[in-house]
Write a structure and sequence with these properties.
Mean pLDDT: 82
Oligomer: single chain
Number of strands: 0
Number of helices: 6
Distance between the termini: 32 Å
Largest sheet: none
Radius of gyration: 40 Å
Shape: rod-shaped
Helix content: over 70%
Structural class: mainly alpha
Strand content: under 5%
């Protein structure tokens, strides 16, 4: 209220043109500030949204593909030790190596997005599980990539007893990483939603404040021009009717109306 009072006093010391220019310039500046505030909030929210996508949403798809590749590696290994045809064994080994390469490439795509402590710990667990799994996988292939029935049966026994727990550990590590990303992504999404609500409240509050101040200033300017003019018109009316003694109304502004009164 005090700020508005001092602003009105300042306006009353200006000429009408200056007063109007000052008021309109103030309104334009105020709404420009609001527009800049909105733009900054939108920019921040866009950047934060991109962060959520890049660090939590997109990696979920990559993790799922890595899990698929790991499953394909295991399936190819089963084919290698299960087939009794050299051509089929060679074909499955080729597929096996391709899936191994694809899995490791997918891990390297995921790794840079793991920026949290939990994410990095999950990646370390995946690396350890994969190293242990691929080690036993190589032994099994070396043993069972043959048409020799006894060797194939031994390799299949190793798959059940030795490789299955290693694969489960790898799958668990990948699943844990997926869950971490989902949890972090959901938390970031909720934070972004709260930020959006707060931003909307702030923007609405600032707009309302600007409208209230601008309306009061406009009314005050209109009143400072209207009332002296009405008083002058009324006095001129009595003057035209022969009243030469009544004083002219006192004008408190220092503008063109005050000049007329003087």
């Amino acid at each position: 209220r005090k700020e508005v009072y001092y602003m009105i006093k300042k306006l009353n010391k200006m000429r009408i043109k200056q007063r109007l220019n000052y008021a309109f310039r103030g309104i334009i500046i105020a709404f420009s500030v609001v527009s800049l505030l909105v733009a900054c909030i939108l920019l921040y929210m866009t950047m934060d949204y991109n962060k959520v996508l890049n660090n939590y949403a997109f990696p979920q798809g990559d993790i799922a593909m890595a899990m698929d590749e790991a499953a394909e590696v295991r399936s190819a290994s089963r084919g290698i030790v299960g087939y009794d045809s050299n051509d089929l064994i060679t074909s499955m080994k080729k597929q096996h190596d391709e899936h191994v390469e694809a899995f490791e490439a997918k891990l390297e795509e995921i790794r840079p997005t793991m920026i949290t402590k939990e994410g990095k710990e999950c990646m370390a667990a995946i690396d350890k599980a994969w190293e242990e799994y691929i080690a036993i996988d190589k032994k099994i292939i070396a043993e069972g990539a043959t048409t020799d029935t006894n060797k194939s049966l031994e390799a299949q026994r190793m798959m059940i007893n030795d490789m299955a727990p290693k694969y489960q550990a790898l799958d668990d590590a990948l699943t844990n990483l997926m869950n971490v990303n989902i949890k972090k992504g959901d938390a970031e999404q909720q934070r972004l939603f709260v930020l959006m609500i707060v931003a909307l409240i702030v923007i609405v509050a600032v707009v309302v404040l600007v409208i209230v101040v601008s309306t009061k200033a406009a009314r005050a300017i209109a009143k400072s021009i209207e009332e002296p003019l009405d008083g002058m018109v009324a006095r001129f009316d009595t003057f035209s009717q022969g009243d030469l003694d009544s004083p002219f109304p006192v004008v408190e502004t220092e503008d063109e109306i005050a000049d007329m009164d003087g």
